[in-house]
Amino acid sequence: MTSAIEPQKARRLYLLLRDQITSGRLPSGARLPGEPVLAAEHGLARVTVRRALDLLASEGLVRRRPGSGTFVQGPAGARPVIGDLPNLLSGLIAMGRATGVRLLSFEYVAAPAIIAEALLLEPGERVQRSVRVRLIDGQPFSYLTTHVPERVGLSYSEADLAATPLLSLMERSGVTADRATQAIGATLAGPEVAQALDLEVGSALIDLTRVVFDRSGRGVEHLHALYRPDRYAFQMDLVRTGDAGERRWTPAVPRPVKPESPRRPAARRPAP
């Protein structure tokens, strides 16, 4: 058996063990089989097994004790940030105040056709484009690319955006975010995004596109957001409505939004 690390096989074992830990099948405090046992069970070199365990340790899912073994300690750090869909706009400001931000770029550019169409821009209208990484407890969880009409973007500076939620800046300038439309899907991390979010290239991400409109119906923000699914989740409360035979799930009345505060998670993890 080769002694070289096999990255794909190491990642496969890492994902297998990670799923067992996050699902609760391997409870906090459980001792994992030793490297020789895992290597024999999965047909891997010990260095490959060691790499998989190192990945788990880097996420705080296991603790390696020399001479004693490797023990499950469950998810480390604060629980994932939860995005409440019914409280969408107010929740964005609350989340912005409860998390940190790293501004990667800030510039004024010609609006790409897809952005101009989504924001209902006039021909030739420019946009302010920014790229930010949001962090919770110092750990990156989202990669955000925003396009804002130049007439709105000129009301705040690069320093403002690095310190204040974008919706707060827009409201300060007199823009009122009235409604939004969004689509949520999934994608894989490219090299640039993977580096920013501290992931391996090809890791799964939640993919969200949101367009925000003011009271007059003009587009004021186009957001493309990529989230680490282990650090961000979407939540929606539902109620059963309708007459007998035609009952269906309907979004519940929005609940008051409270800023996220760091808390230790239980051994079992939630779901962006």
What does this structure look like?
By secondary structure, the chain is an alpha+beta fold. The protein has 2 domains: 4-72, Winged helix-like DNA-binding domain superfamily/Winged helix DNA-binding domain (Arc Repressor Mutant, subunit A, Orthogonal Bundle), CATH 1.10.10.10; 81-235, Chorismate lyase-like (Chorismate lyase), CATH 3.40.1410. The chain has 9 helices and 12 strands. Strands 4-5-6-9-8-7 form a 6-stranded antiparallel beta sheet. Strand 11 (238-241) and strand 12 (248-251) form a beta hairpin. Helix 1 (7-22) packs across helix 3 and helix 2 packs across helix 3. It is globular, with a radius of gyration of 22 Å. The protein starts with 6 loop residues before the first helix and ends in a 21-residue tail after the last strand. The model is unreliable at 88-94 and 257-272 (pLDDT under 50).
Task: List the keywords.
272 residues, alpha+beta, Arc Repressor Mutant, subunit A, Chorismate lyase, 2 domains, 6-stranded antiparallel sheet, two-stranded antiparallel ribbon, 28% helix, disordered C terminus
